[in-house]
């Protein structure tokens, strides 16, 4: 686990970078929300409850990329993604509103990706260390699985593959990230993500 001093350093870095980038991100996010609203016929700002630090739920914000309400499987996501939505998802621009999650303290720039209930909140034993840090916009597992949608679509049973191959690997990657955390590594992960 991160020490109290490391947690403070990580949070100060998160806030400083978010405040620095906010003026450059604000107008593009507003424009993307308007375009997504026109494209999907729904509110262009999508929110969903995710599992955060210490297992607490928080509202994660994204640009809406899908039509309809139920997006339970990777197949549905592929079928319901609009052309603009697919473009945004491929470039990860749909994630830009999460700068507000970072400013609010529910997320960090780097850390385990926040999952829907039913995954991180059900971890046990040593694996629960994943819940000791704020979830991140990017991180080592996110970088490794940057083409996760394609990988899952290539499987006969995407849900089974996710639950038995990808998810356990992400847990291990995230545990190692937390055990070996450093600010320099966070900066490297950010640069690799860009």
UniProtKB/TrEMBL annotation:
InterPro entries (UniProt xref): Bact_transf (IPR003362)
Sample GO molecular function, one term: phosphotransferase activity, for other substituted phosphate groups
Membrane-spanning intervals of the chain: 12-38
Keyword tags: Membrane, Transferase, Transmembrane, Transmembrane helix
Residue ranges constituting the Bacterial sugar transferase domain according to the UniProt record: 10-193
Record has Transmembrane helix as a keyword: yes
Entry keyword annotation includes Membrane: yes
Family assignment from sequence similarity: Belongs to the bacterial sugar transferase family.
UniProt name for this protein: Sugar transferase
Species in which this protein is naturally found: Pukyongia salina
Lineage: Bacteria, Pseudomonadati, Bacteroidota, Flavobacteriia, Flavobacteriales
């Amino acid at each position: 686990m991160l020490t109290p001093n490391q947690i403070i350093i990580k949070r100060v870095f998160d806030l400083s970078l978010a405040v620095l980038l906010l003026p450059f991100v604000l107008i593009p996010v507003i424009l993307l929300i308007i375009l997504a609203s026109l494209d999907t016929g729904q509110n262009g700002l999508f929110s969903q409850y995710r599992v955060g630090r210490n297992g607490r739920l928080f509202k994660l914000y994204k640009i809406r990329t899908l039509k309809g309400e139920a997006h339970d499987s990777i197949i549905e996501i592929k079928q319901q993604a609009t052309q603009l939505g697919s473009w945004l998802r491929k470039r990860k621009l749909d994630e830009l509103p999460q700068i507000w999650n970072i400013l609010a303290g529910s997320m960090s720039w780097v850390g385990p990706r926040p999952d829907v209930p039913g995954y991180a909140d059900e971890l046990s034993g040593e694996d629960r260390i994943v819940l000791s840090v704020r979830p991140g916009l990017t991180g080592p597992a996110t970088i490794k699985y940057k083409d996760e949608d394609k990988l899952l679509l290539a499987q006969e049973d995407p849900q089974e593959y996710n639950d038995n191959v990808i998810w356990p690997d992400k847990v291990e990657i995230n545990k190692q990230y937390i055990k070996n955390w450093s600010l320099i590594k966070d900066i490297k992960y950010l640069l690799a993500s860009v």
